[in-house]
Amino acid sequence: MTKKGVLTLGVTLIVALLAGLTASCKKEVMVEGGFSVAEGRQVKFAAGNLMYDKLQKKFSIASDPTLVVGDVNTEIANPNALVTIDLFGWGTGDDPLRISTDNADYTTYTEWGSKVGGNWRTLTRTEWQYMLKKRPDARKKYAYGSVDNKAGVIILPDIWTMPDSCVFLPGMNHPDSNRYTPSLWRKMSANGAVFLPATGYREGKSYKSASFGRYWSSTEDFANGAWGFAFTNLGEIGVMCYDSRYPGYAVRLVQDVQ
Which end of the chain is more exposed for a tag (fewer CB within 10 A), N or C? Predict the structure, then answer.
């Protein structure tokens, strides 16, 4: 086989692997739990983070909630690297490969969910705040933990029943207690729990530490900033205003409950 043939085969295998990890199966696209984001209004979360396949030029939703591609995101501007990325500048639904570090290039928000189809969208600042702070027992419904040894935050739905053999301690100070094997997490997810993995972030072509998570909201702030959801491995969690729109952060889509 020629070198060109080996390269083609390699790319084909990578695309096939990622296709298996992303949401080709409708049952795995959405977590069934309902999460209040305003009084009388709920959403359901996508099962995993938003992905963009450079080869197919297509958005998708990861079916594996732990899936992050990490420093592969540094290949965002490499035309020869036909990879999948999962960190995006704010509002880049129309141009997911944008790597400019000039905030002036991010003045217009284009919803990522509109490119996926199926009425997906990104939460607003106030919706993140309501879910984390204002819904009934809000502070008892999130925790730092890990799934299959991947660190992140677990968020429980409005109505929660603890599965057999599972433990959940709310708050950000019990990562060793909130550890789930893949089989235990399937039980948690089946009852509506959502996992947001630590993702790190991208600045231009550089990838930064994966010990924390930063997720976008659809809400802008002042001329250069935008709001999002963030957490660290030091027990910090909350809705915060990012002072720039150009860094590559993660996106977790939702659908409104009708």
Answer: C
Q: How far is CA 146 from CA 14, 20, 143, 183, in A?
A: 26, 22, 10, 13
In a domain, 144, yes or no: no
> Per the structure block, which two tokens stand in for 207?
């990838």
Are the CB atoms for 129 and 117 separated by under 8 Å? no
What is the bridge-based pairing of β-strands 237-242 and 225-231?
A: antiparallel
Residues of the chain with pLDDT under 70: 1-28
At 133-169, the pLDDT tens digits run 999 999 999 999 999 999 999 999 999 999 999 999 9
Q: Looking at the 3D structure of the chain, how many domains does it have? A: 1
Pairing between β-strand 142-147 and β-strand 179-180 as defined by DSSP bridges? parallel
Q: ∠ CA(55), CA(58), CA(64), 5° rounding?
A: 95
Does the residue 132 lie in any domain?
A: no
Amino acid identity at 56: Q
Strands (E), 124-221: 142-147, 150-155, 179-180, 194-197, 201-203, 206-208, 213-221
Q: Which domain holds residue 59?
A: 3-127+197-256
Report the candidate in 132, 162, 167 with the shortest Cα–Cα distance to residue 146. Answer: 167
Rounded to two decimals, what is the model's pTM? 0.88
Would you say residue 149 lies in a domain?
A: no
Q: What is the pLDDT of residues 206-245, one digit of tens each?
A: 999 888 899 999 999 988 999 999 998 878 899 999 989 9
Is there a domain that residue 81 lies in?
yes
Distance CA 164, CA 180 (A): 13
Beta bridge partners of 203: 206
Of 195, 194, 199, the residue nearest 232 (C-alpha): 199
